[in-house]
Design brief:
Chain lengths: 361, 250
């Protein structure tokens, strides 16, 4: 564990990591200015299949497997007594997703979750965040050799919710990690999906969808750390924004260390501004310490709604509201269809439609 | 029997340097079953005429009128014009990422017909229309115009025309970018729709080539934002021979 004192310093808003975040709206999660409860708020939605367990052991029995420089993550580690531990047995292959529901309490809280995917296991884990809540969360995800895990975090919060989270994946040899971070609800959502590789042949696919309307702050801070040879990563986040003071932040940090030969990485962020008054910040960063790589690149675009697409669809008799919905659904479909679950695809598209329906109200 | 009546139409385009006048008083009347070729040099305003009738927001109508069976087209929104029976086959059809052709066609037909087509008959209808345009059925799973070749885009436009069954179709440089085979397939598609309906056609073109396949009843020569000469099919032969030089210098 790092002993850096800065890890515990309350952010002032001038730090690089906090400069975009509206600190006053964080419900004290970052500075512990209010009482913050340590309670277990994760439970399984359906009964768990054989070979999958959800328990609540002492946090001290499961010390963090990585160093975090995030102030909230470090406070969670200090504060929580018990964690939510989800284990998936070796060689277990599950066709159906495991749904975990997050029911936050009436006051601010901190939560630590550990997910362990066994050797050669194949599973999908979905965390559903609904309702009201003020929550600081750390999710540590370990993939053993050859494991394949889809991890889906749905932020479908009510509009008052505050959610600060770090989702850190430790990906073993030949393991495949795919994450989908979907942020639609909440007042402030700030999630840091971070990834490290511990064995070669590992692969991380990080997808994200966000839709910010009036006054929402949705922030995603990706960090992919390539420190072993021959690992591959892809990042693709797409967001739509509409309405006054809708704000999204996307940070895409990719670090390729010396010795991480054969690294193959590409990150992409696209933002679609649907109205005036919305703001999308998009900051890709790529640091490379070795020249012996397969590829490394990034792209970031932020653009307005394409009126030519709208005209084309309308000229075929399609009314403007349906035409807009088609274009927005089309914009997100590249990522939504990758979920490969009809239930989840329809649910997400329904959420996107509902957000769009708010525009222009 | 439908009539599209364009009277003294004047149109400007909004540019950074101010409004630029493009159409300087266009008069043309197209009735069901008639094919009118609008021919003229590049930059004469042919496409502006097409897009103005369809209602593209870039163009500002400064004078004149457009009516379809007496109804004021210029007062209608873009989708209302399509529902009224106007169709524009575009020179540069727009890509719509993430929207499949099948979803697009179904949505458009539902909007135009006022109700969703019956699934069983609809699939057959689309398949037959695609087959007659030499389009593979896999085409319907692709995204609208995304990665289409020039010929595929034009065939897709004519496919839409076949399914939407407009009263009056404006074909804007449908022949551009087509090789001989594609031109024949697309032209046959237009002729088939004409044979099966009372479609009136405004065929905008720079070259006489497409007129070998789609026979016009009337030819209008367009230059400098207005019609400068009118006649029957023989006028196209004259243009083939002499080009547009006399109209440009005039």
């Amino acid at each position: 564990m790092s002993a850096l004192t800065t890890n515990y310093l309350t952010p002032s808003g001038r730090e690089e990591a906090w400069r975009f975040t509206p600190l006053k709206r964080l419900a004290g999660l970052h500075d512990i200015s209010v009482d913050i409860a340590d309670r277990i708020s994760i439970s399984n939605r359906d009964s768990l299949p054989a070979g999958v367990k959800l328990t609540n052991p002492l946090s001290t029995d499961f010390p963090p497997a990585y160093e975090s420089n995030d102030v909230v993550t470090n406070r969670i580690r200090k504060a929580v007594q018990k964690i939510s531990l989800l284990t998936i047995d070796n060689d277990l292959e599950l066709a159906e997703p495991i749904f975990l529901a997050r029911k936050a309490g009436s006051s601010a809280e901190l939560s630590r979750v550990v997910i362990q995917a066994g050797i050669n296991s194949k599973a999908t884990v979905v965390i559903e965040n609904n309702g009201v809540g003020e929550i600081g969360e750390e999710i540590e995800i370990s993939l053993a050799t050859g494991a394949s895990l889809n991890f889906i975090s749905l932020q479908e919060w009510d509009r008052s919710a505050v959610h600060i989270g770090q989702h850190h994946a430790i990906i073993g040899k030949d393991a495949q990690f795919t994450s989908y971070v979907v942020s639609i609800g909440g007042s402030v959502v700030r999630i840091s999906p971070t990834v490290e590789f511990t064995g070669s042949g590992a692969f991380a696919d990080l997808y994200g969808i966000y839709f910010a309307t009036d006054g929402q702050h949705l922030e995603h801070r990706i960090h992919v750390d390539h420190s072993v040879p021959n690992a591959k990563s892809r990042v693709n986040y797409k967001g739509a924004l509409a309405g006054n003071a809708a704000h999204t932040v996307w940070i895409g940090d990719v670090y390729i260390h010396k010795g991480a030969d054969g690294t193959d990485t590409y990150e992409l962020n696209r933002n679609l501004l649907l109205t005036e008054g919305a703001r999308a910040d998009s900051v890709p960063n790529l640091e490379i310490e070795t020249g012996e790589i397969v590829g490394a690149g990034h792209a970031s675009t932020t653009g307005r709604f394409d009126d030519e697409q709208l005209f084309y669809l309308q000229s075929r008799g399609i009314p403007s509201d349906i035409a807009r919905r088609l274009v927005i659904r089309g914009f997100f479909s590249e990522i939504v269809t990758k979920l490969k679950s009809e239930e989840l695809e329809e649910r997400l598209m329904g959420r996107i439609d509902a957000e769009l329906a708010k525009v222009g109200e | 029997m439908s009539v599209l009546e364009i009277k003294n139409l004047q149109v400007s385009v909004v540019t950074d340097a101010g409004n630029k006048e493009i159409l300087r008083g266009v008069d043309i009347t197209i009735k069901s079953g008639e094919t009118h070729a609008i021919m003229g040099p590049n930059g004469s305003g042919k496409s502006t005429l097409a897009y103005s009738i369809a209602g593209h927001p870039k163009y500002m109508i400064t004078g004149g009128s457009v009516t379809l069976d007496g109804a004021d087209v210029l007062e209608m929104s873009v989708d209302e014009r399509a529902k009224a029976g106007l169709f524009l086959a575009m020179q540069y059809p727009v890509e719509v990422p993430g929207v499949s052709v099948s979803n697009f066609l179904r949505t458009a037909v539902t909007a135009i017909r006022g109700e969703a087509p019956k699934v069983r008959t609809w699939v057959g209808e689309v398949k037959a229309a695609m087959a007659s345009l030499n389009m593979d059925t896999a085409f319907s799973e692709r995204n609208v115009n995304e990665g289409f070749s020039g010929g595929e885009k034009k065939r897709h436009e004519i496919l839409q025309m076949e399914l939407l069954k407009p009263k009056i179709a404006i074909l804007d440089e449908t022949d551009s970018g087509l090789d001989v085979d594609a031109l024949r397939i697309v032209s046959e598609g237009v002729n088939r729709v004409k044979a099966n309906s009372e479609l009136g056609v405004m065929l905008i073109t720079h070259y006489t080539r497409i007129l070998r396949y789609i026979k016009p009843d009337f030819v209008h020569v367009f230059a400098n934002g207005k019609i400068v000469e009118e006649g029957g099919p023989e006028l196209a032969d004259k243009l083939e021979e002499k080009g547009y030089a006399e109209y440009i210098t005039a």
